[in-house]
């Protein structure tokens, strides 16, 4: 028995979707998902929106309806791993509120594995996690975007892709309300004056890291601040993109 085996015995792995304890043994196959849940993850497939990475119904279209309606201008484009279905919703919720920090490992590893060439091509100088306010950090103990950015950085290093995490560029100065209960207009109001930045004119290209892309207003706002701080080009990566078919 290795130390890793003993740890697994005391703290068994749980399925990232249903939270059930995974059977011991057969480590590789059962590391993150139980057999029932494997089918429930829906990976984003082409055609996708050239701006936000959401799945679209026809490859004749360039953009999704959401981006056609309101084209965000501060970031260039971004992509996500999964469609935001009810299972993923639940899983991402558990990460934040039931402190299932270890689930982020799975999402970060998959993102690195599936999109390594895209990371290599965009080649950002750093990952910038969407910051949370210090009070919220105290409540939750961790910022899920920051954990994801660190997992991504570590996993991409396995493929010789070097993208460090920079958490000294942008900070949250306002403890915003939980945005997923708000409509787009209220999100924007809530995000006004939410952030503060350090001068970052030495950076050409940065990539924002977050868990979900919903309306894009948070990422747009962060991108806007990053550009004001001197960064020339901003991209984003997320675990899940809300459908907009
Ligand atoms: Zn499961
Ligand atoms: Zn779009």
> How many distinct helices?
9
The average pLDDT score comes to 90
The whole-angstrom Rg is: 18 Å
Largest sheet data: 4 strands, parallel
What is the CATH first-level class name of the largest domain? Alpha Beta
Number of individual domains? 2
Concise account of the structure shown:
Helix content is 37%, strand content 14%.
Structure description:
The chain has 245 residues and is of the alpha/beta class. It folds into 2 domains: 1-40, no CATH class; 41-241, Rossmann fold (3-Layer(aba) Sandwich). It is 37% helix and 14% strand. The chain contains 9 helices and 6 strands, in the order αααβααβααβαββαβ. The chain has helices spanning 3-10, 35-38, 65-69, 86-97, 103-122, 134-140, 144-157, 184-191, 217-228, and strands at residues 78-83, 126-129, 170-172, 195-197, 205-213, 233-241. The strands form 2 sheets. It has a 4-stranded parallel β-sheet with strand order 1-6-5-2, with helices on both faces. A two-stranded antiparallel ribbon has the order 3-4. Strand 5 (205-213), helix 9 (217-228) and strand 6 form a beta-alpha-beta unit. Helix 5 (103-122) packs across helix 7. The longest helix is centred in the middle third of the chain and has 20 residues, at 103-122. The N and C termini lie far apart (49 Å). The model has no long low-confidence stretch (mean pLDDT 90). Bound molecules: zinc ion (2 copies). Residues 49, 51-52, 54, 63-64, 66-67 line the site of one zinc ion.
């Amino acid at each position: 028995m290795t130390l890793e085996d003993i740890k697994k015995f005391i703290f068994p792995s749980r399925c990232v979707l249903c939270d059930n304890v995974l059977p011991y043994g057969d480590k590789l196959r059962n590391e993150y998902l139980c057999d029932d849940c494997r089918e429930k993850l829906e990976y984003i497939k082409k055609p996708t929106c050239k701006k936000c990475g959401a799945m679209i119904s026809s490859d004749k279209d360039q953009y999704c309806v959401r981006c056609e309606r309101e084209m965000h201008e501060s970031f260039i484009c971004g992509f996500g791993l999964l469609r935001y279905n009810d299972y993923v919703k639940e899983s991402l919720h558990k990460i934040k509120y039931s402190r299932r920090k270890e689930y982020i490992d799975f999402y970060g590893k998959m993102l690195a594995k599936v999109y390594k060439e895209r990371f290599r091509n965009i080649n950002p100088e750093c990952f910038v996690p969407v910051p949370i306010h210090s009070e919220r950090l105290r409540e939750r103990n961790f910022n899920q975007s920051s954990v994801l950015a660190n997992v991504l950085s570590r996993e991409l290093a396995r493929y010789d892709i070097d993208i460090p995490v920079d958490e000294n560029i942008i900070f949250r100065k306002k403890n915003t309300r939980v945005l997923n209960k708000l409509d787009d207009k209220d999100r924007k109001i809530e995000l006004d004056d939410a952030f503060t930045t350090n001068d970052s004119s030495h950076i050409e290209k940065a990539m924002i890291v977050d868990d979900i892309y919903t309306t894009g207003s948070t990422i747009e706002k962060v991108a806007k601040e990053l550009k004001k701080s001197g960064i020339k080009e901003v991209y984003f990566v997320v675990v899940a993109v809300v459908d907009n078919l």
